[in-house]
Amino acid sequence: xxxxxxxxxxxxxxxxxxxxxxxxxxxxxxxxxxxxxxxxxxxxxxxxxxxxxxxxxxxxxxxxxxxxxxxxxxxxxxxxxxxxxxxxxxxxxxxxxxxxxxxxxxxxxxxxxxxxxxxxxxxxxxxxxxxxxxxxxxxxxxxxxxxxxxxxxxxxxxxxxxxxxxxxxxxxxxxxxxxxxxxxxxxxxxxxxxxxxxxxxxxxxxxxxxxxxxxxxxxxxxxxxxxxxxxxxxxxxxxxxxxxxxxxxxxxxxxxxxxxxxxxxxxxxxxxxxxxxxxxxxxxxxxxxxxxxxxxxxxxxxxxxxxxxxxxxxxxxxxxxxxxxxxxxxxxxxxxxxxxxxxxxxxxxxxxxxxxxx
Length: 358
Known about the structure:
Belongs to the isocitrate and isopropylmalate dehydrogenases family. LeuB type 1 subfamily. β6 (149-153) and β7 (156-160) form a beta hairpin. The chain is of the alpha/beta class. The strands form 3 sheets. It has a 10-stranded mixed β-sheet with strand order 2-1-3-12-11-4-5-10-8-9, sandwiched between helices. It has a two-stranded antiparallel sheet with strand order 6-7. Strands 13-14 form a two-stranded parallel sheet. The protein contains 12 helices and 14 strands.
């Protein structure tokens, strides 16, 4: 456990400031309970940064992030900035900070809450008990491979990208997956397309080599098309899924959608030195400033920070258990509300969660 944790706070745009306020309040409650000191430093990113400085990621923000133990980010973007040039839009700030901090792994939990089973598109017997984690390689693969481009060949337009992975990129993401699985249910599913792609054949070979150091963890290999199907057919069988950038982009959204509550899903992007925690949902500018946003994904992102960066897993469990209890009692923000439950504001939901932490 760390005695103190320096955190760069990036509220961003839309509902970002509201849900970030909720996360900070929860962390203050954790601070009192566990005696850990949180040092919060707020900075600009996204549209808010563009309005103030003309840059979606000011140098001051990046410098602060590199001097911190962790970065908490709420959301970026909105219609206000949609007509800006692509390289000056809010989302570029997010992509740049991930790259500059070399955040090579994205962790996306997919957990089915008992109180929200009705929200899932799957039958209750399939989704009940689902608790999986998708680990997506974030800085390599087809999104960054060269050569890439759009050109004309033989009189017609051609677009091309290169899917490429180096041995060290595969090794570090595989090691991370096995390390995390050791503290879960000790099973890793490595997803590839090794039957048709050479890059996947190398991926499978390297993951298998790394597994030799983790004989206490079960490893299974699965083709991406089969994995997409099995996530719907038998999601409870998955523990940790590790895969490349492209496949992970798709599968993490599918896994999240299975729970029926995308607005409640947290994520972590981590590297050798830095880590950034953010909710999966967007900035929801249509409800910004109304006090009705769901803060749970942001609060759960802070819980991931407590476990991974602050080395305080018991505090993370406190937050998760508090959220379980609040949902069981019927508290709901508008996005997850259903007849017979209690519709509450962002602040009311936050207070209810804190009540079970302290």
